[in-house]
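thought: fold this chain, then report.
action: predict
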Amino acid sequence: MVNLLAAAAALAAAAPTQPPPVVQPSHITQTSQPAMFVVRDDDTTVYIFGTFHALDGGANWFSDHVRDAFEHSNELVLETLIPEGPVAPAAFGRAFRPPSVTPSASFLATTRMALSAGRAQGMKVDNGADMVLRRAAEAEGKPVAGLETLEFQLDMFNHMPDAQASAPAPPKPGDPVSQSAIDSLSKSMAAMQSAWKKGDQSVFVAMLDQLKSGAPQTYRMMFTERNARWADWIKARMQAPGTVFIAVGAGHLAGTDSLLVRLAERGVESRRVY
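observation:
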């Protein structure tokens, strides 16, 4: 749910006159190697894989090292579990409660723009790394869990002060969206996808720096605070044996407030394996 599309939407809402950083995409090879990190002790291994939530399906990233780490893991942990289809809530058991909040109108408007920009580059959520990993885990009977509830994420979107305070009025249903804005965002997303496939973190650092400068409260809610909570979760999980494959948006693994930095502050060392 919370992903690079959402971050791009928040950036667009918080700084509408300043487009996201654009890095020219390089040639995309057939086989990609996104960044992956690992934390381990004597009896516990936690792989931390940075995902891109909507992809064009033009590269085989789920192979070799990523696939090997996934297959050796006992469970998959995503940012959250998104219900699939009208009967999906039943699969979550009695603990599942339908969300009681919805995102703000301005955030929904900019998120729709981000999705339109992604579609212009042939990106689909069905091709996204999170969805591919979840389907593979479910097919193998591997347990799948979420670091956060869907309700928590929707509530967070609904309380983003910078987006609410500085965004222009969202377009009414049926109103046209600026093509130039979509084109700019589309190019940025293509550059981010290209960087992700190469394991290049620099473009995500640039995006995060701009978001932090233009919308500090949104940045804090989306990245700083959540990375800290996830680091606490991982540190606690290290107390139990087993192998876990954690998949979160690539933006959470880049920059000075990343999940990896938060882990280091807690005395948990990580290293990049690919």
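thought: worth noting. Residues 13-29, 87-101, 162-170 have pLDDT under 50 and may be disordered.
final: tokens above.
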